[in-house]
Design goal:
Number of strands: 34
Strand order of the largest sheet: 26-25-29-30-31-34
Radius of gyration: 46 Å
Number of helices: 71
Largest sheet: 6 strands, antiparallel
Length: 1890
């Protein structure tokens, strides 16, 4: 053996393989393995495992062996196993099981075009199901998997003989390791177990398993062979003969480890089952591996190894049996685990792969009672949490009823979830469900589990003190019911949908009834219980409701619930509905916010289908089978409003505060209306329900597709793939494309809104109210409905509309008695009281009133079927006895029935209540003060002739109609209804009208009634409700008031009898419901006798009701009365008689209230106009006084570029006024008190990404693709600067070139602030510094007015008007004279006035340091550092480059088309270039640079300066004039001159520079010509010189060619490769076009400067080909061409201006100066410098691919460009394409062990601190600016125009070009600081963690 160990591994393995093939050598191999895999040798020894690899390979290399084995992979399924965070796909079109998932390779390898699929990140892990026909359809298989795919031939016999021997030994060695590990760490917690030593061996097993089906067969044979396991463990296999004692010792360890697993209680039905045997000793390696996996809480690598072999069916079956046997122990481990979440995920990772197979599930159910094991395991978990249930009436002794404690760790940690998940999974199989439904013991077990959740998390209302802390157990309770109860319920529901499964439903229904009766008995609950203790959780009753619905509507089962049983059941849902109303009335406010969260969760879309919908159906069942009078009384009793439903105006509700009564009454009526109209579980189809839910959601607000799909009520656990969703959505909604608000940076997503006809035909207010969680959402829906009706012309006026309640649908046969709820005397009596109070009081709110009218309308729709016998009604009815008010239940009879007299009980006979509250003195005092305030307010309003409705406009208050208009025509009636039907109840009560007197008779006492002379104001019942019998009610008219007798004559002369209610009263009513409805209509319209029956109207005939009729209260009351007249002639006769009685004349007496509606409105408008006129006069007086004293506000005129209020160039104001946003003072900027613009300065590198290529680069998405940076402005300018620096002295470089690709960008919100106020503002911010502002370090702050980010103040220069700056004399002057004056201005010594020293100091201390600090972001790319210039020169370069950068960026934002008016608007919004140029000129004071400017001007014009200061540097090697940048020279000259620069001087400088630029263009063109063309142009130029004295392009080009031909320039150019333009023939038109294109960049900048300096509007231009002409005309370089000119575009030479008659001398000087450099031996440099292309296209972001999946799949597998590691959070730079790591804190990757912030290298190099990234894992764009990070939005949207942040939905995403263009615009314009608000600090506490 030692000899073998010393030999070479591959040779020894080959030798042993040969012997094994000949059936010899097995002993040698076993002995070798005993040494290599000795239990006494550590598994971390790599050499031993290398021996194992060599032996398995049998003489070949292990990699070659693996490749060979994979070639014989005969597996038909993929079986790829993954862990959490793995990207997989799920196709609902191909999936059979909802758990189906496939890997990315199989998904892309299959055909899923137009399928409903999504990409997702696995949470708990999974395995690929491709090729498994039991999980997915064969059409979705990839081209490699499936039963029909061709496979390789049989595995050769000599390929795996060594593996057959070595693999079992590897597995056995790993088992021994696990045994030893447990013995060493048995005293430690599970979380402390470490499998680190066994990792190498475990990795080798994974490598073997990954070789494919051939090797997997070897491994599964070793794992499942029981004989092999027995031989290895007892030593009979011949291995480990020298360590047999140790092997036996490990056997004892295995037996002892059994005690580590908790064993659940075994029900009788499971006794004898192998799964509950103890001890459960393994019989194979797979069982022992699973056992240790359970012990060590399922280590991830062991789990994945076991799952990788599931494609082998034999192994899968044995592994599933082992898993089921251990299931009870696994469930108990969940309860004691320290990491239950992790353990739960790993358990489900295994179980979902096993139980998704129906054949395997039913086999385990038959063999091992799988369902019993799951339910028993769940019971054992829940029993740990049980506590006494306090819901029922307390008994003597201990309680028998127990409930799950939501505070228990098992409930809080959701330890039951894996068991429930597995139960729901197997219940999806039809064969398994059959076993479940046909086993009564199973049904009883399950309903007993449900009873443990009954009334959990019981809420007890706090009446006195607020809770000390708010518990969060409610979330646990809701999760438990939804996960543990609702999910299995809906899974069972899918199997009970037709008559063939009726016995299933009946069996479970019986079990629910039996368990419910037992639970009610144990809880000791009768027909009522404590109303102050309510639980939202009644899952057993909801099971009963759902099963009952299925049985009655779909299965034809005749089920009649027992009346007593049903009465006890409905108490629970009824109490919940009442509690919801109480919660929203703030009656549970002392219980904290958590109680409102419970109510909202109960109604929330993910819970409502499993909770409130089933509760409502249970109440509907009660309405069908119970006495309607009982149910209606029960409803009002539970809502605590029975004491409110009284005729007593001074009633006292012992259970409610007066402010809560209307809302609770409204809730009760809404519940009744909902019970009558809802058909969710009463036979409605799935399509009808989906349509109803969709319409309700859309009516509340427009919604995106994902939100709409997500908020459809969810049946928990079901595979939600409604095939009708899209078709219904297309029918009911219109799609609106996503739109971008480019002005504000706002973004929208694709949304759906209801089609117009939906509002008119399908808007259901009752269902909308059922689905909203806040009343404001219902009001929003009503507002949208009203808006639509007004837009379509169906409603006019400002009055509100009543909800358009839909007609009732006829219920199905089992529920035909539902409408009996409408036909009960109790409901009729309640409605009578409501109408009575509405007519004679004001305590009835609009919602209660329109619900009552709607209920009456419903009664007319469906007359009663079951008529009760008439009973005589007494003459005197006791208040509250509703059944005695009417003789029968027929509504048409009861409408005519008159209530004569009502006996009002004494106030001291209040109903008793165990929780009756008392009013303290504070409440009474507040109520008295309120009454006094209401009285005074009402009297003041009546004095003005205005109604009490304070929110109504004056012109909307309607007076009563005149007497002669009492009988209007039908048209007049319709117009009145349309105009006034929406008036509020309070507004109508304030209209002065006649009311009938109310007679009061005393019973057993003296009469105490007061009759008061009133003005039509009724006593508010609410204001008097708090007064007791000891404190008599005082009418408001009797309170102290300031009403004078003078005003009484203008009031109505009628009397109103106001009653003081006292004990023992008899109230005479003598009215019917018809009388009250007619009076209610009159009250709403504001006119006595406003309603006329159809028979009494002017125009006979039926009213045309075609189309949608809408309106307010008056319309619906009128419609109801019309319907009554149509249905019941007797009622019509009574109404006619009533109208005739009111039509009696009143002797011609009229009052002031009889004014017409027009007169009243006219007077109101006149009063309004007088008031407004008075206010306007006062304002004018104030302004006049302010102007006289000089304190008026100065207007600051708007400008296009710089909003400084500067005067026009023609007439400049002496002093410019600014308003400080801090102190509010309006004053000019002075040296002593300077003022500046609130501005933001930031480093920029945007210009560096300009390109000489017009097309944008494309982001690579395939290997081999690269991004080219050739032609980038940054690279081109760097090379140009290097050439200039190498060939010329540095002093002349400043005026020759700029660092225009990097610098500082400045923008302003155009608000002003004093510099002193700014400093005070910063000091105040330091005390309240927020995390996103760096006041100390960076001076950042928010504008006090607009809150935009800023970091400095740009000083405004005071206006200087002296002789030197005045306009030059003379209108037309010689060009030479102006040139001389410019030279004089350049040489003039700049001496600043003493008064400006303060602002100079402030500028030097504020502006320049800030500029230098921001520019430090550009130090890595700044050329000034590389040039080695001293600090003084660096400062000058910085100042000049700042002006250049801002001008260029302004041009970039405009898209390089300066003359486009529309594009100039966004650029000027935040521009401050005019002020910036003045500041730069103001601080320019270096004499050397003044001298250099004079010399540059002399070189340009040929005018010698008078006196030049001495320049210390040598000037012998200056940059030639033809190599200088004209834009740099322009900026240099303008900033050196003292401001303001006169327009003539500016034009002169531009003309001089244009001449230089024109010469440069001709020089470049001549170099691009071939030699033959040069010769031809030379001859042509000579001919032109002889025939014309004007400056012409031909002659100038000829001279230049002649001069350059004398040098070697053309020789070097002709041999240079890569010229920008090269063509063989150059016509005059071609030359002219080339010159114009060459000059356009300079002309644009010059025009932009003129626009900002002189406030001149930029010209408009519709065509780009005439841009040159427009610009030169704007700059006064050339006059416009004449109309008759033949070729108007050939006149660039006419823009030339030279001193003297001929430009030859100046051209000769320029060319000779350049030829000096040409004659030097630098051919490459001189060609590059001369042929420099100044044309750059605007910077652009990388062009993204259309499909996001291309980006995701490519970059999620790439390594970081910096650290070369696989990033956990990869992001791609959209500017340069770099792939960067981004971790949780926004920091970059690790370099040399040190974490570097992401912005320190790439962001500085690419964007000077500002970069734009695309987050690969979330599709979101990330903006990083400095130390801040912001999540902007996603530029990829799905087909519905929605984002998918974090890829949660996983739908295919398509690039939105509109959003991407907006992102590009924000990047170019530096608008991120203004458009993005959600900034967080990188790496700080405010950072976002992914």
């Amino acid at each position: 053996m030692a000899t073998l160990m010393r030999g070479e591994k591959r040779k020894v393995a080959a030798q042993l393989k040969a012997e094994i093939t000949r059936n010899t050598g097995n002993q040698q191999l076993q002995e070798l393995l005993d040494v290599v895999l000795s239990p006494q040798t550590s598994l971390e020894k790599s050499d031993n495992l290398d021996w194992c690899r060599a032996l398995i390979a049998g003489g070949n290399s292990f990699d070659e062996f693996a490749k060979t084995v994979r070639a014989y992979d005969n597996a038909t399924t993929c079986g790829l196993v993954w862990t959490s965070n793995f990207v997989a796909y799920r196709c609902r079109t191909c999936g059979i099981s909802p758990c189906m998932s496939i890997c990315a390779d199989c998904f892309h390898g299959g055909n899923h075009e137009d399928h409903d699929f999504n990409m997702f990140r696995s949470q708990a892990g999974g395995a690929c199901d491709c090729g498994d026909p039991s999980v997915m359809r064969t059409a979705g298989f990839c081209n490699l998997h499936g039963p029909d795919k061709p496979k390789n031939h049989t595995v050769p016999s000599d390929l795996l003989p060594m593996a057959d021997v070595v693999v079992p030994r590897l597995v056995f060695r790993f088992v021994l390791y696990l045994r030893d590990l447990f013995s060493k760490c048995s005293d430690l917690p599970i979380m402390r177990f470490d499998l680190k030593e066994g990792e190498p061996l475990l990795s080798l097993l994974h490598e073997l398993c990954n070789m494919g089906g051939a090797m997997r067969t070897v491994m599964t044979r070793a794992l499942t062979d029981a004989v092999l396991y027995q031989n290895h463990t007892d030593g009979s296999a011949g291995c480990y003969s020298n360590v047999q004692p140790h092997i036996k010792q490990t056997q004892d360890i295995l037996q002892n480890a059994q005690r580590r697993l908790a064993f659940p209680d075994t029900p009788k039905i499971l006794r004898g089952n192998p799964a509950v045997a103890y001890p459960l000793l393994p019989s194979s390696f797979v069982e022992e591996l699973l056992f240790w996996a359970v012990i060590f809480e399922f280590p991830e690598k062991i789990v994945t190894l076991l799952l990788k072999m599931l494609p082998d069916n034999t192994y899968k079956e044995l592994f599933t049996k082992s898993f089921v046997k251990f299931y009870g122990r696994i469930a108990m481990s969940l309860a004691i685990s320290s990491h239950p979440d992790r353990l739960s995920s790993r358990v489900v990772h295994i179980s979902v792969q096993l139980f998704s197979n129906e054949d395997l599930a039913i086999q385990m159910t038959n063999d091992l009672q799988l369902i019993h094991i799951l339910i028993a395991s769940l019971q054992c978990l829940l029993k740990r949490t049980l506590m006494d249930n306090p819901i029922g009436v307390a008994r003597d002794g201990p309680r028998n009823c127990q409930v799950a404690n939501c505070e228990h760790p098992v409930m809080k940690n959701h330890c039951y979830w894996p068991v429930i998940s597995d139960l729901t999974n197997i219940l999806s199989h039809r064969s398994v469900v059959h076993k479940f439904f046909t086993d009564p013991a199973l049904l009883k077990m399950w309903t007993n589990v449900l009873s443990m959740f009954m009334c959990m998390n019981l809420n007890e209302r706090e009446l006195h003190n607020h809770v000390e802390f708010e518990p969060n157990a409610y979330s646990t309770a809701f999760s438990a019911e939804i996960e543990a109860c609702a999910a299995p319920m809906w899974q069972l529901y899918t199997h009970c949908k037709d008559e063939t499964t009726a016995h299933y439903t009946q069996a479970l229904l019986n079990a629910c009834v039996e368990t419910t009766m037992d639970w009610l008995q144990e809880a000791n609950i009768q027909e009522s219980f404590d109303p102050f203790r309510v639980s939202f959780h009644i899952p057993l009753l909801r099971y009963y409701a759902l099963l009952l619905s299925q049985a009655l509507t779909k299965q034809g089962v005749q089920v009649t619930p027992a009346e007593d049983f049903l009465k006890r059941l409905i108490v629970f849902p009824l109490q919940i509905q009442a509690m919801v109303s109480e919660v929203f009335c703030e009656m549970w406010v002392r219980n904290g916010l958590q109680i409102k969260r419970q109510a909202m969760t109960y109604m929330q879309c993910h819970f409502c289908a499993s909770m409130i919908d089933l509760d409502l159906f249970l109440l509907q069942v009660g309405a069908v089978y119970l006495d309607p009078d009982f149910l209606v009384t029960k409803v009002f009793s539970c809502f605590k409003v029975l004491e409110t439903l009284t005729f007593n105006q001074s009633h006292f509700n012992s259970q409610l505060y007066p402010g809560n009564e209307p809302a609770m009454l409204e809730g009760a009526f809404y519940l009744l209306a909902t019970l009558l109209s809802t058909r969710t579980h009463m036979g409605a189809s799935e399509e009808e329900l989906l349509r109803q839910e969709m319409v309700a959601l859309l009516c509340i607000q427009d919604r995106p597709h994902s939100q709409l799909a997500d908020q459809i009520p969810e049946k928990t656990g079901l595979f939600n793939s409604n095939e009708h969703f899209e078709s219904i959505l297309a029918e009911v909604a219109d799609y609106h494309d996503p739109m971008s608000e480019t002005g504000s940076g706002g973004l929208q997503q694709g949304r759906y809104s209801p089609k117009p006809h939906i509002w008119e035909t399908e808007f259901d207010p009752i269902h909308v109210m059922l689905r909203v969680m806040q009343k404001k959402d219902f009001q929003t829906a009503m507002d949208r409905y009203s808006s639509h009706m007004k837009q379509t012309g169906r409603h006019s006026g400002s009055s509100g509309l009543w909800p358009p309640f839909k007609p009732l649908k006829l219920p199905t046969t089992p529920f035909e008695n539902l409408h009996q709820l409408l036909h009960c005397k109790t409901l009729h009596g309640v409605i009578f009281i409501i109408l009575y109070k509405a007519v004679h009081g004001r305590s009835i709110t609009d919602p209660v009133l329109y619900l009552c009218i709607a209920l009456l309308d419903m009664m007319l729709q469906y007359p009663t079927v079951k008529k009760i016998s008439k009973t005589p009604t007494p003459d005197v009815i006791r208040d509250g006895d509703f059944s005695a008010m009417f003789p029968d239940n027929v509504i048409l009879n009861n409408l005519r029935h008159r209530i004569k007299t009502v006996e009002i009980p004494s106030l001291h006979e209040k109903p008793s209540s165990s929780h009756q509250r008392t009013m303290d003195s504070t409440d009474l005092l507040l109520q008295q003060l309120l009454n006094e305030e209401v009285s005074i307010y009402s009297q003041n309003l009546f004095g003005l002739g205005v109604g009490f409705g304070g929110h109504q406009n004056l012109d909307e208050a309607e007076p009563p109609m005149e007497e002669e208009e009492a009988y209007p025509s039908e048209e007049e009636q319709d117009s009145v209804d349309e105009e006034l039907d929406g008036m509020e109840q309070e507004e109508v009560d304030d209209i002065e009208e006649e009311t009938e007197g109310m007679e009061v008779a005393e019973v057993g006492g003296d009469m105490e009634a007061g009759t008061v002379q009133g003005d039509g104001y009724d006593v508010d019942s609410q204001s008097a409700s708090l007064q007791t019998a000891d404190e008599p009610t005082v009418p408001l008219q009797d309170l102290p008031a300031t009403t004078s007798t003078a005003t009484s004559s203008s009031k109505k002369s009628s009397r109103v009898q106001t009653v003081l209610w006292t004990p023992c009263k008899m109230l005479t009513i003598n009215e019917s419901m018809l009388d009250l409805l007619v009076k209610l209509h009159s009250k709403m319209v504001g006119k006595e006798g406003s309603y006329l029956p159809p028979s009494m109207r002017t125009e006979k005939g039926e009213r045309n009701d075609q189309g949608v009729q809408v309106g307010g209260g008056a319309y619906y009351v009128r419609r109801l009365l019309d319907k009554i007249c149509h249905l019941h002639p007797e009622s019509q006769q009574q109404i006619e008689a009533l109208c005739q009685l009111k039509d009696q004349p009143d002797n011609g007496q009229t009052t002031s209230s009889a004014l017409s509606s027009t007169d009243r409105r006219k007077k109101a408008r006149e009063a309004q106009q007088k008031l407004f006129a008075k206010l306007a006069a006062e304002q004018r007086t104030f302004l006049e006084k302010s102007l006289e004293t000089g304190e008026g506000l100065a207007e600051v005129p708007e400008t296009d570029g710089d909003d400084r209020g500067a005067a026009t160039p023609k007439e400049a104001e002496p002093r410019e006024m600014f308003e400080c946003v801090i102190c509010g003072q309006t004053a000019p900027s002075t040296g002593d008190n300077p003022i500046g613009m609130v501005a933001l300065m930031q480093a920029t590198g945007v210009l560096g990404h300009q390109s000489q290529v017009s097309e944008a680069q494309t982001l690579p998405t395939q290997s081999g693709e690269e991004i080219s940076h050739a032609g980038r402005c940054r690279n081109v300018n760097e090379r140009r600067k290097e050439d200039l620096t190498r060939n010329f002295n540095k002093d002349s470089l400043q005026a020759s070139v700029d660092t225009e690709w990097t610098g500082v960008h400045i923008q302003s919100c155009r608000h002003y602030i004093h510099l002193s106020c700014h400093q005070s503002y910063l000091n105040s911010l330091q005390e309240y510094q927020s995390h996103h502002l760096h006041v100390h370090s960076k001076g950042e702050y928010e504008c006090p007015l607009c809150r935009q980010l800023a970091n400095f103040v740009l000083p405004c220069m005071p206006s200087l008007r002296d002789s030197t700056s005045s306009k030059p004399h003379g209108v037309e002057r010689n060009y030479s004279c102006i040139i001389a004056e410019v030279m004089d201005r350049l040489q003039h010594r700049r001496e600043r006035p003493v008064s400006l020293r303060g602002i100079l100091t402030a500028t030097e201390n504020v502006f320049v340091p800030r500029l230098q600090m921001e520019n430090r972001f550009n130090t890595q790319g700044s050329d000034s550092m590389r040039l080695g210039l001293p600090p003084r020169e660096m400062r000058q370069i910085l100042l000049q480059s700042t002006a250049r950068v801002n001008l260029e960026l302004d041009l970039v934002v405009r898209g390089n088309l300066l003359t486009s008016q529309s594009s100039s608007q966004p650029a000027s919004k935040r521009s401050c270039l005019g002020t910036l140029l003045e500041v730069l000129s103001f601080i320019q004071s270096d004499e050397m640079y003044i001298a250099m400017a004079s010399k540059a001007w002399s070189s340009l014009t040929g005018v010698e300066p008078g006196t030049l200061p001495v320049v210390p540097r040598a000037q012998s090697n200056d940059v030639p004039i033809l190599l200088r940048d004209p834009i740099s020279l322009l900026l240099y000259l303008i900033t050196v001159m003292r401001h303001p620069v006169h327009k003539d001087y500016f034009t002169c400088i531009v003309r001089a520079l244009y001449a230089m630029l024109y010469t440069q263009a001709l020089s470049v063109i001549s170099c691009r010509m071939p030699q033959t063309e040069r010769k031809a142009w030379t001859e042509s130029g000579k001919s032109c010189q002889e025939h014309s004295n004007q400056i012409q392009m031909d002659s100038l080009l000829s001279e230049i060619i002649v001069m350059y031909s004398q040098s070697r320039l053309y020789q070097d150019v002709d041999t240079h490769q890569g010229l920008a333009i090269c063509q063989s023939v150059w016509t005059p038109q071609c030359v002219e076009t080339a010159i114009q294109q060459y000059c356009l960049p300079f002309l644009r900048i010059a025009a932009l400067m003129q626009h900002h300096l002189y406030r001149e509007e930029l010209p408009t231009c519709q065509r780009q080909d005439v841009e040159f002409e427009v610009l030169v005309n704007f700059l006064n370089l050339c006059t416009p061409p004449s109309v008759d000119e033949k070729q108007p575009n050939l006149y660039s030479a006419r823009c030339l201006h030279f001193v003297g008659d001929s430009p030859s001398n100046l051209l000769r000087v320029w060319c000779q100066e350049f030829l000096v450099f040409v004659n030097k031996n630098h051919p490459a440099a001189k060609v590059r410098l001369l042929l420099h292309n100044p044309i750059f296209y605007p910077p652009r972001l990388l062009q993204l691919p259309t499909r996001y999946d291309d980006v995701f799949q490519y970059y999620r597998q790439r390594r970081c460009d910096r650290c070369k590691n696989m990033p956990s959070r990869p992001v791609v730079c959209l500017v340069c394409g770099a792939l960067i790591c981004l971790n949780a804190a926004g920091l970059g990757c690790h370099l040399s062990g040190i974490r570097a912030p992401i912005d320190t290298e790439h962001s500085l190099e690419c964007g000077s601190g500002t970069v734009v990234y695309l987050d690969i894992n979330s599709s979101t764009v990330i903006i990083i600016r400095g130390k801040r990070l912001c999540y902007w939005a996603s530029v990829y949207l799905d087909r519905h125009g929605e984002e998918d942040r974090e890829l949660k939905r996983g739908k295919p995403l398509i690039l939105c070009q509109q959003r991407y263009k907006m992102l590009e615009h924000l990047w170019r314009s530096h608008g991120f600081n203004h458009s993005c608000k959600n900034w967080v600090l990188l790496g700080g506490h405010g950072g976002h963690h992914f």
